[in-house]
Amino acid sequence: MTLDLPAQLADWFSKRGWAPRRHQLDMLAEGRGGHHALLVAATGAGKTLAGFLPTLAELIEQPTEGLHTLYVSPLKALAVDIQRNLVTPVEEMGVDIRVETRTGDTPSDRKARQRVKPPQILLTTPESLSLLLTYPDSFTMFAGLRTIVIDEVHAFATGKRGDLLSLCMARLQAIAPAMRRVALSATVADPDGYRAWLAPDGDIERVTLVQGETGVDPNIDILLPEDRVPWAGHSGRYAAAQVMAEIETHKTTIVFCNTRSLAELIFQDLWKENAMQLPIGIHHGSLEKEARRKVEAAMADGRLRALVATASLDLGVDWGDVDCVIQMGAPKGSSRLLQRIGRSNHRLDEPSEAIVVPGNRFEYLEARAALDAVEAGELDTDIFRLGALDVLAQHLMACACAAPFDQQAILDEIRSALPYSALTDELFDKVLGFIRDGGYSLRAYDRFKRLTQDDDGLWRVSHPKFIAQHRLNAGIIVEATMLKVRFRNGRALGKVEEAFASTLSHGDTFFFAGMSLEVEKIDTEDLIVRATARPARIPTYGGSRMPLSTNLADRVRRFLNTPAEWSRFPDDVREWLEIQGRRSALPRPDQLLVETFPREGRNYMVAYSFEGWNAHQSLGMLITRRMETAGLKPLGFVANDYAIATYSIDPVTDPAALFSSDILEHEFVDWVQQSHLLKRAFREVAVIGGLVERQHPGKRKTGKQVTFSTDLIYDVLRKYEPGHILLEAAWADARARMTDVGRLADLLARAAGTMLHVDLARVSPLAVPVLVLIGRERVSTGSADDALLIEAEALAGEAMRLD
Q: Which residues belong to any copy of the Helicase C-terminal domain (predicted)?
């Protein structure tokens, strides 16, 4: 087997003064051998080129019409960026290879043409691929498919989008048995887990692991304030002037924020400090497509000095002029930090430069833990789980839209996808029965009878209207209900959540798309605004909080109990921990420290569990319920990533009784069933599973209409069919994703044997960052951080006294 590059490719490399890297040639060898491959290589190592190298070589050596390679990315922006970076070398080599994108933003006429005359290389997303597979001509379109390349595989393999993609790959493999599977990633802690996910039938031995060359270690600094690390806050807003100074001294900077609302706030703060009037942009997923594309083009052309962004730019977008990345607030995970750092100096032989701006003292410890983890090469682990049933229902409907199917044949095909390899006949029959008639509680209604079994045993779509309905509504991402923000002249700026919009009235102001806007009118689907110079609130977006990874939580726990490490910390952080040790206790990594103390007529309990905000929110609800039952008269609770604090009329004298593990058997089930959580989870699975449609031809349902429909069905099923397949799917979501029940179980298991209860006369230093959140949980005004800082200083003065 020869690894010689075709002349056009070899000349292209040499004209640029480049030579193929070892892992690129390894990927070429795997391609020529027809092997599936997973490439794990550092950002800037030429992963994308490595993934496409076998395709380019094959199309140059053996030109062919028709679809040769399918490239799947988690982001529309990434697909567009790859097209730009792939078309350039193709044009420079002078070879006849067509490269096109297909996403939700692609014009309908181009989509229709692509199905009839597809390009040799098509760049798309899992959702768009699934829609392609609903057409009868998909069998001819994909018949000659040679390769599927999955970029940034870590971004979706372990979630519902990964479930959908694995099912799509199983279908493609059935259509094109010789298809080769390739996946690319820079941040994979468990390569074997991803090899198994990628492999047909989960056969890990069929996927070759190709390891890329290691790059230069990144230069990462923690930016400290000019006076002291704040007690409270989580945004790093205090450092706006310092961040602006960094922007002024670098060519191009990306400022990453963990939420969309924080991105809007930081953009405004930076603009106020922008004395040099440098061009700065903002990019997040709620902005209009045109606004995002405009910013992406400006970055690609080098016309911006800084871009404030969210996770919408975490992955793979390659702007070579970016020479600094700034992370506002703690990164929440070492893999995420590495991914973001990789946007700086997107080259293997140059160090990436990054700065982390912690929002408070706990976040300083988290930032230090993240830097240590990056230096040690320790990535966040990913948890692979069984495939979601609502996704399976959607995929089965997609297959039926393309052609009638045989039940056993499609079950065998589905089981070849690793997430569904253990799918039982009984569970499959329940999913199929749900699509057939909605379940026995709903079978009286024709609108739920989407599939019919013919006399010959084949399953087909009951009526053509269900095909149109599926194509309009298919998708995995169920966002919170949004209202379009637009000016009276019709120009759209983006979308905000309905829950946020419902708090607004005529004349109210808020920041969005980098502007201060005043509400003129609120319609069913539109928020009509005008620009204003008045001060404003910031939009709040639900579901955008990132969990603290377990490996960073473990490192922070170790910091608390290892004074030898403290010499690396700023003086005020070191003093904070020292006085905590003298006034209360610093727990061992395996201990759960619980403090109780009175303050201003209330009794507080603070547990330092470090399991992340999501798990703490769930535990707070459960603990306060148990306190109510015990007659302790709880008033409420607050939580952050590091601790949970309850406050009550009567004191907690036996916290161990509140944290017993049977809380997950009794109170947890009651709480989830009675709260909005299960209804919210049901709404998502009902939409994904196709039970409730978001759109009709020419008309889109409002969020309130969708919620009303799903709530009505939910109540019917809870009463008459509690074992319904979608209720099972909703429970799985509520337990795993919305409540982080796995981390809750770990916390409670730890509490059972290692709880350290310290009863104090007054607040402790460690309690200050979480206690200042009381009464501030939902404040989103620009002055909130200032108020937090004032209150924190007063609390801190009390906590740090040694008398």
A: 239-387
Phi, psi of 730 (to 5 degrees): -65, -40
Give, rounded to a whole angstrom, the gap between the first and last alpha carbons of the chain. 79
Contacts of 367 (CB under 8 A, 6+ apart): 222, 330, 331, 356, 358
Residue 305 has pLDDT above 70, yes or no: yes
Cite the residue boundaries of each domain of the chain with CATH code 3.40.50.300. Answer: 219-376
Find out whether 134 and 473 touch, Cβ atoms under 8 Å: no
pLDDT tens, 218-266?
Answer: 788 998 887 788 887 767 888 899 999 999 999 999 998 888 888 888 9
SS3 752: helix
Query: Of how many residues is the chain composed?
Result: 803
Count CB-CB contacts under 10 A for residue 245.
12
pLDDT digits (tens, 9 = 90+) for 316-336: 556 657 888 898 988 887 777
Q: Report the side by side order of strands in the sheet with 644-648.
A: 634-639, 644-648, 602-608, 592-599, 755-759
Distance, in Å, from the CA atom of 433 to the CA atom of 557, rounded to the nearest integer, reads 49
Query: The tokens of 188 are what?
Result: 């994979």
Q: What is the distance between the alpha carbons of residues 735 and 740, in angstroms, rounded to a whole number? A: 6
| pTM of the complete model beyond 0.90 | no
Token pair belonging to 585: 């206790």
Q: State the sign of the Cα–Cα–Cα–Cα dihedral 546, 551, 555, 561.
A: positive
Q: Which of the four CATH numbers 3.40.50.300, 3.40.1280.10, 2.30.130.10, 3.30.479.20 does domain 219-376 have?
A: 3.40.50.300
The residues with which 458 forms a beta bridge, in sequence order, are 406
Strand partners, 768: none
Q: How many CB atoms lie within 10 A of CB 159?
A: 17
Decide if 218 contacts 42 (C-beta within 8 A).
Answer: no
Reduced to 3 DSSP states, what percent helix, strand and coil does the chain have, rounded to the nearest 5? 45, 15, 35
